[in-house]
Amino acid sequence: QVELVESGGGLVSAGGSLRLSCAASGRTFTMYAMGWFRQAPGKEREFVAAITWSSGRTYYADSVKGRFTMSRENAKNTVYLQMNSLKPEDTAVYYCTTGRAWGQGTQVTVSS
Q: What is the pLDDT of residue 40?
């Protein structure tokens, strides 16, 4: 079993930046990849980004390409989501996941 804890959310003005972190603990050797999803009020949860542990290959939703960057720090079993040029439509609860385990989420609010 893997436990995930997100941090780094907050309130930021449009055009600003935030960096989210997700620390994994437990049976981390079972992890192949990790991802970020987000859910805005009244909307479905949607994919944001993912990264593979071994190669560090990244994948992004079209809506965040060029603005968000996902990275990993293997020694700390931690992944990051650097979010730049934030827009009000990026407002959501952001969750990290291994595909099986999910974190509790961290709120990101972007004011216009």
A: 96
